[in-house]
Amino acid sequence: MCQLLGMNAKTPTDLTFSFTGFAQRAGKTGDHVDGWGIAFFEEHGVRHFVDHDSAIRSPIAEVIRNYPIKSTNVIAHIRKATQGVVSLPNCHPFVRELWGNYWVFAHNGDLKDYKPRLHGHFHPVGTTDSEHAFCWIMQELCKSHVGVPSIREMTLTLRELAARISPYGTFNFLLSNGDALWAHATTSLFYLERQWPFSRATLSDEDLSIDFSERNGRDDQTAIVVTAPLTQDEHWTPFASGELKVFVDGVHQNL
Amino acid sequence: MCQLLGMNAKTPTDLTFSFTGFAQRAGKTGDHVDGWGIAFFEEHGVRHFVDHDSAIRSPIAEVIRNYPIKSTNVIAHIRKATQGVVSLPNCHPFVRELWGNYWVFAHNGDLKDYKPRLHGHFHPVGTTDSEHAFCWIMQELCKSHVGVPSIREMTLTLRELAARISPYGTFNFLLSNGDALWAHATTSLFYLERQWPFSRATLSDEDLSIDFSERNGRDDQTAIVVTAPLTQDEHWTPFASGELKVFVDGVHQNL
After folding, report:
1. Region of poorest pLDDT, from A50-54, A117-121, B45-49, B90-94
2. Chain A residue closest to B88 (CA)?
3. If contacts are CB pairs under 8 Å, which of residues 125-154 in chain A contact chain B?
4. Which residue segments constitute the domains of chain A, with CATH numbers given?
């Protein structure tokens, strides 16, 4: 199994605090040592980092922990290989372009005997069930809409597609095109929203705390989605099984 | 205008020496300060780094200069904006997936009034003429072949496509899918092959030399392609205008 971390923010926000805690699970407080990856949207551009080394040893992960890359949508993943060897093409998140948008996807879980035919223009480079599922989602989105749909329409389509894959196993995933963050849970996913007045937060995986009120203003709003709560002193809301949620401008949308 | 750097190697090889010299042109020995990017293939996986900061200031470029990422195919680019604003989606190299391969592309030059219709599945995310040309090439490749063609067939198709774009302006480009490196010149591109017995090389842009014989064995072979020669004491061969060359296992192929 793997672990997921996603961020959706109203204003460009850095994820160094959360990523520092999350990366501890790649060997220190967890055994997710078979690669890691993170993708940051800046408007519709993407910075995409993947490594088959673990996120606590990788020199590139060290830069991410220390260099505040500001972004409105981030998806990160640490991998414990279940299907597919430990190799660069098997590291999440995966990126594809559709309708002139980059789409970033990461999956936590295991899909059994899941090999739908890929008759469109999206094909996996690696050998994971996750990338196969992502390519199928991209193919079906491409058939369902002629261009980038509204966030509401996209959410409805994704709910249908997630429900068609879910019977094959555990399908916790994060998806973003830079405009919104979609998150689907089968087993374990939690979210929280940080907004004014901000308070202090302490990581669960590392002896580190931060006072968000010193760094954020009234306009800042951030939502964090993660496999298991990252902090001890904040209220994390669990997803129900089968639930797909969407976050825009740092806030959970009732769509 | 921009500058290009490509590497094709028989065995996984690091590019820290060449990239150190190349990055000096992003502000120190050149004025290519409007972003940079580099993509490393590891088998068919890609590590892709882009930044709208300059390659001599960027903390991520510093990691690339110091952390030896070993790769068989690398494409790097430093940008001086001619078309398209300075932003992340406009940073080369660009990446798309076709036939289950990632394709990495970087362009140096300027295409005038070049806007062919994109009726396929590849669309630019940014606003550069370069990404538009890349999407058109991907579209035409997809129409010309049903799957990844042989390197010989791919080279013939690319020659036809490059000849159709070249009348619009300057079209120096590098393209790779991890199996080979294709390079096309309109104005300025040079290459060299490093093989046994290796010798010493001294950068033109920085006071740094390296003795390749201490780091390489009989089996190592590397080809470097670049906009302007990187070293003072090696023999760089210029491309003729309109020439498209292909490199496999560190050697220029007569195809």
Report:
1. A50-54
2. A45
3. 125-126, 142
4. 3-253 (3.60.20.10)
